[in-house]
Amino acid sequence: MTAGELCNRTVYIIRADESVLEAARLMKKHHVGCLVVVEEREGDRIPIALVTDRDLVVKGLTESPADFETTTVSQVMSEGLTKARESERMYDVRKKMRAHGVRRIPVVDAENRLQGIITFDDMVEWMAQELTDLAQLVSREQERESESV
Fold first, then answer.
1. What is the CATH number of the domain that holds 66?
2. What is the per-residue DSSP string for the chain?
3. How far apart are CA 47 and CA 39, in angstroms?
4. pTM score, two decimals?
5. Which among 10, 24, 55, 146 is most buried, taking Cβ atoms within 10 Å?
6. 71-124 pLDDT, tens per residue?
7. Per the structure, how many domains does the chain have?
8. What's the CA gap between 125 and 77, in Å, rounded?
């Protein structure tokens, strides 16, 4: 399976110059813990960072609580964006997420345009399905053995 096949194509975005208060409102409205920060380039959305609910609290609320309305996403967003290409195998994406210590990873196409996002929860679901498939293989093998006796 590839990142493009597994990713969620509904991605909530924000610009770096918007307020952290707006980011918090969007997260609440859409029931998500993360927004992809994008730049518009020739009509394309190019991911440049992530901003998480944790960023809002740790870097926004605790460091400048009085300025929550004027603090911008660029001041609290996570640096060093880790991305996955649509064609990347999920095993490689999992290794990349672990190596970089990230729970969410935007998925981009060959031109670096935002296509989707994969979260830790998506990875757990995918791996659980993989384990279920393996368990069914063992069960099917036992059935075949008992049929031949």
1. 3.10.580.10
2. -BHHHHSBS---EE-TTSBHHHHHHHHHHHT-SEEEEEEEETTEEEEEEEEEHHHIIIIIITT-GGGTTT-BHHHHSBSS---EETTSBHHHHHHHHHHHT-SEEEEE-TT--EEEEEEHHHHHHHHHHHHHHHHHHHHHHHHHHHHT-
3. 7
4. 0.84
5. 55
6. 899 999 988 899 999 999 999 999 999 999 999 999 999 999 999 999 999 999
7. 1
8. 27
